[in-house]
Amino acid sequence: MVLGNCGILFLEIKSFMVSNIRIISRLDIKGPNLIKGINFEGLRKLGDPNQFAKDYYEQGIDEIIYIDIVASLYERSSLLNIVRRTTQDVFIPITVGGGIRSVDDAREMLRAGADKVAVNTATVKSPELIHEISQKFGAQCMVLSIEAKRTAPGKWEVYYDNGREKSGIDVLEWAQRGCELGAGEILLTSVDMEGTGKGFDCELTSAVSRAVPIPVIASGGLGTVDDFEQVVKVGQADAVAIAGALHYKKLTVRDIRTEALRRGIHVRREVLCQQ
Amino acid sequence: MPTVTIIDYGIGNLLSVARAFEHCGANVVLTDDPAKIIGADYLVLPGVGAFADGMSGLTKRGLVEPIKAFAVKERPFLGICLGMQLMLDESEEFGANEGLGLIPGKVVAVPSVGINGASHKIPHIGWNEIRTPNDVSWKETILETIPDKSSLYFVHSFTAMPLLHEHRLANCYYNEQLIAATIRKDNLYGCQFHPEKSGQIGLAILRRFLMLG
User: Fold this and answer.
1) Which chain A residue shows the shortest CA-CA distance from B148?
2) Which of A68, A105, A147, A229 is catalytic?
3) Does the structural domain A21-262 have CATH classification 3.20.20.70?
4) What domains are there in chain B, each with its CATH number?
């Protein structure tokens, strides 16, 4: 038995850790720029998202997530351009979210080269959109993005519009409902920890991961490799999204991969081939 | 420069597959024209989603017989993900459905628990290592240039079960459950993983495919 730093007792590494944990870079977009904020506020421009994406791809990231945090119709073409440019030289799965309000919006993103769409706000307002996208393009395309804010011990509320609006919906109930409606994955962002670099809300991740049979991507709070270890071992995350720690070069993809392997976490081993 | 013909049958994202082949130095033709399919040098059947939708997409466009006609010519064929599953005789996804029958076998659901009874997440999503089965060599196949235990990107809920061991070119294990990662009969190949989404290793497989005679 091991006592995790989060104070939760757990028996060995989770028994169903059967697939490699995915290391994902999350790039939040505003207009043509990569940005980063704290708790979804205080935004800073960091540069050209395509350059960051290509750099992470070359470093061996497993997937990329783009989230347009403004998601206005006016900026849509800018996001589509970023996706189109990325798919020209980045050959790993790409998820795109922000402002997807209909099956047609989802189709537009997929046609631009996205492999999956992440939908949040629109599904809170009309949950049937989850079912429609899943039916039309397959569950593997439909990532339910949940912004969760802690309201009481063991309780979280669903927020939307990038952490600005509260819905009154319980996160665990919403995760289960989303799963029943056909979501293939959950992108779970802690509104409380997002951008802080102070670690994940492991209790939240673990509660959602145990509540649904689909993979959960933990997002919001990674500052160190310890945080990565915690959210996998204690939080039972199936994938980990990293933003600021990579963008500000506090960590590299290789640091995380090497250290994760050393700590007994199954991540993709980099195997390069002769070509 | 080799020309790759990608079958456009209204299912899935063909763009990624097209861009990956272009990146590997191929000309790409996206088509649902039966004549172009029969006459292709390299034929690729991509696809994500449900088996029945895939077969009905092919049937509606009158492409089942042209694909079978191509297959007997022994020119290189690659099915990816759903495209691989369609190569088999039948699938039990949402009731029995007939496939293309290019390689004997069937498609079944990935078991929702491991050999040890422990549950796992479905779909099987992520990078998983592929391995050479016993008595099988990757020499002179599309996997020739990649190392054993290379990691590739999978996303699927169903899995191909080729009838004959000799048609398994690579396996992977999901919670100890055996998954056919690559199947092969002569020049007909199927990959459950997405080579177009598996970084440098995936691109190496596509490049090797383009060198098949």
Assistant:
1) A271
2) A147
3) yes
4) 3-209 (3.40.50.880)
